[in-house]
Structure formats: structure tokens, C-alpha cells
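User: For a reading group we're discussing how well predicted structures match intuition. Take Phosphotriesterase. Before you show the prediction, I'll give you the sequence so everyone sees exactly what went in.
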Amino acid sequence: MSAVRTVLGDVDPAGLGVCDAHDHLFFGSPRLPGQELRDVSAARAELVAFRAEGGGAVVQWTPYGMGRRAADLPPLSRETGVAVVAATGLHQAVHYDERVLEELRGPRLAELFVAELTAGIGTSGVRAGLIKVAGGFHALDAHARWTMRAAAEAHHATGAPIAVHLELGTGALDVLDLLCGECGVPPHRVVLGHLNRSPDSVTHLQAAASGCWLAFDGPSRAHHATDWRMPDAVRALAEAGYGDRLLLGGDTTTAAARSVDGGPGMPYLLRRVRPRLVAAVGAEAVERMMTVNPGRAFAVDWR
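Assistant: Thanks. Here is the predicted 3D structure of Phosphotriesterase, as C-alpha cells, for the group to look at:
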């Protein structure tokens, strides 16, 4: 039976409620010094604010080595009533010390992903519910190919979905060629993130035709120039018959972006983005993108 693997256990996909399909409660990178998401009380406040707007679930895409704080996720989920899905996986090489990457060379990377999906993250006992990897700007470097092949191997062992950070929204077709073509991952097990950052309707339609999931996440301080084009991109896909392949998320990656610190944060997805999309494609379509689609995208017949 298919289930979404949350930090409190496997749940029926129909029980997720309104889902932020791509966000971060905890996140830390040397590329964002001083903006780390580390504070548990701030994470709790963000979930409470999201819940107050009608939110029911958050999929955290924070991968290995980026401050996931897995042990803190179950109590936060219980205290706020918001289901949380954790991730395994690996981001771009620039987010890690070379020593960390060297320790993961060879077969160990896929084994790590499988272990975190089945046994738990570290000693926390919290099992990941997806694998997060990343591409580069209009290309896949050796690191991206290594991590994606390991993700594919872990998918074949567990059934877990693979969520992909697309750098500035680019490289979608190269990712699909590698994961689905070379590595044999079914397209419906692949989620492409950040497509709002590159509002290329031709590429969007080609990617959607493969059967993968397309995630539109934001707003983002660093990529706000394309935020206003997201409703048009979503409308074009919905009108082409791909409304059942779309996901929406907030992607809060810095402390300044949290609503409790003066930014838009998770609640903004429901408070402002949702009504803007309702005006573009209608309430029924947006409801499906935020409830039915996430349940289908992240539900797995776990092995």
C-alpha cells in the first residue's frame, strides 16, 4: 500500500492536507553565512503560522550534511500538527567540505541514502521520505552525475522519489535524460524543483510530457525577478493538460526569509501565492496542486 513517509511514520497520502511540497525548516550552507536555519523555536513558530493559514504538511528538501536536525523534526511535527517529510540526498559540491565528499566516494553514497530511507538518519530513528540531489546551471557536472546515479540506485532499492534542485531552474531535460533514460527511474518518481526560476514554457512542456512532477517554489529574494511570471507558467501547463503534475512550495532557505523574521516564509505560500494562482487557473486546480498532487508525488510502495 502506498504511503508518504513522514517523520512520525508512514501515512495515507490522502491525509496530508494542504502541502508545501518544497521547503526548509533547517538549512545551513557555507554559501549563505549568517543566514542558517538552526533555531528550533523559529522553526516551530513558522510551522504554527503555516498551520494557521490552513497548512497541513511540509516536505523538507534539506539533504545530508546541511543541518537537517532530524531529531528535532518529530517533536515539532507533534507539537504543531503539521506533517513533515525529511530528505536524504546530497546537494551541489560547493555546499560541502571536500573531506566530507571524499568520505562518501564509491558505493557508500547510495548505501547512505538507502540507510537513511529505511533505518533512519543517524541515531535519530527518523526515516527520510525522499532523495534530494542537484544539477548545475544548464549542465550536469561530474558531482551531479555521481549523486544522481547514487539516487537512482537508492530509488531502485526502496522506491523513494527523487527531488532535484535545478540551478536557476535550468537543466531539466538533461536531468531526465540521466535519471529516467540512463538510470531507468520512472518519470513519475522524479520531482523537478525551481522551474519558476526559468520560465521557459517549451522546456516545461517537454518535461511535463515525460510524466515527471514539476515544482514551482518561491517567492525567493534571490530570484524575485521571475516570481511574477509563475502564474502564467502554471496556467500554460494546466491548459496543456498537466495540472495533475504540478506542485507548489515556498523554499525558505535563509533566516531572513522566515515570516517570523520579517520575510514571506511558509505562510506566504497560502496567504498570497495561492490566491494569485486561483485567479490564474481556478480554485479547484490549485486545491489539487496543494493536496492531491503532493500525496501522489511522495507516496511510495516502500520496499
